[in-house]
Amino acid sequence: MKVRIIKVKIVFSIIISIAFVILTYMLCSEQVDDINTKTYETVKRISTYENTTNSIKKNVEKNEKINLPEYVDLPREYKGYEVIGKILIPKLKIEKYILGTTTDEALKVAVTKTCGPDVNEIGNLCISGHNYVQTFGRIKELEIGDEIILIDKFSRKRTYIVYKNYKVLPNDVECLSQNTEDEREVTLITCTLGAIKRNIIKAIEKYD
Fold this sequence. Notes:
By secondary structure, this protein is an alpha+beta fold. The protein folds into two domains: about 1-65; about 75-205, Sortase (Sortase, Chain: A, Beta Barrel), CATH 2.40.260.10. About 35% of the residues lie in helices and about 30% in strands. It has two helices and nine strands. Residues about 20-60 have low confidence and may be disordered.
């Protein structure tokens, strides 16, 4: 009799243990599923928020541009070339029109847009200039923290802060990349003496 009771207790204990394991597994699975669901929903909300914010930002930029008159403070042309903006570098006392076309002749007149967005738009505006003293010949003197000011054809003025000053070989075009993560950047490009390398200045928009 006692042996039978002991066997019943053992079987009962085994059944309870198995039930406990199954219940624990089910609860853990539900928690994991709940965590995964919450993580997905959080990521989705963040993504939706970022997309909405970027859309609003771009629409504001677009509407701001549409509602402003063009060429109030700038000429439409300079020596036969379209003017798309103006660059000021206070440290070097440089003030030049930015031309919309890059050619050998245009570079003799002013500095020019090589690639990128319009002046003061989101992206990496790349501006080229000869290494003349009166244009970009002294940009190698710029240091991290120095300011570059751009004025577009809608008279909007934005300040950019230098964060990088370096040299590259002529075939290195990484500085032209448009991957700015929705920031406004400007890249100044000129030749070194002898045109062996290129002096590159990178600057990003300064926020108030």
